[in-house]
Amino acid sequence: MMQSIRESEVFPVLEIQNLSFSAQGEAGRVEILNGINLTIPDRCFVVITGPNGGGKTSLARAIMGLIDGVEGKILWNGTDLTGLSITERARLGISYSFQQPPRFKGLRVSDLLQAAAGRDLSHAECCEYLTQVGLCARDYVDRDVDASLSGGEVKRIEIATILAKDSPLMIFDEPEAGIDLWSFARLTETFRQIHEQKTATILIISHQERIIRLADEIILVSGGQITDRGSVEEIYPKILQGVVAPCDLLDPEPGKEEQNG
To answer: Is pLDDT above 50 for 179?
Structure first.
């Protein structure tokens, strides 16, 4: 298995051993993850990318415990997560941001942020988390997280809750989805700041160049397997050359195709 230099320098915080997962398809069982072995060092910024349908989201969801029937082991700080519920994994310090976050009728944004933080937050603290994801705090802090919000707004609010929780392992599944260009730039800057603080391990699934270029390490997933991994300098040129992935690997910049609140 390909191994980066960082793994010998830093104690591994997340270890995935022979992880496999299959699902029932029209023609029978389909292998979605196929014997993945992976080590992610502590406080490392890792971007997982690759062609659509390659297993990236399934890998992230398996770490969070969002899918059943996974074979293999996932170790977090030496603790075997096998058999643990989503809630138990969250208590161990793992947070997950969905591609399409849920809505909560009757729950205000400030309430959601405080629930994520596990403590009372001041108005100023709530506003700061919203500002970090490109939302005007005074327009959102007292709004309900319901159908009146666009998909992009709900997405940014959910990311704000991940920041409020301040978990040691933050998993973001395509955080750029449904976000306009200005907010994407603000969010990218927030990811950069979190990484500079070195307080969390960040695992992001993304096709966006600006996010990919923030990474300590890029991991390419295709066909349910890790096909390559390494630094931005090592892997990104291969992506551009189409050596390790098809030409649809990178998405256009947010806001170029659609402007979504």
So the answer is: yes
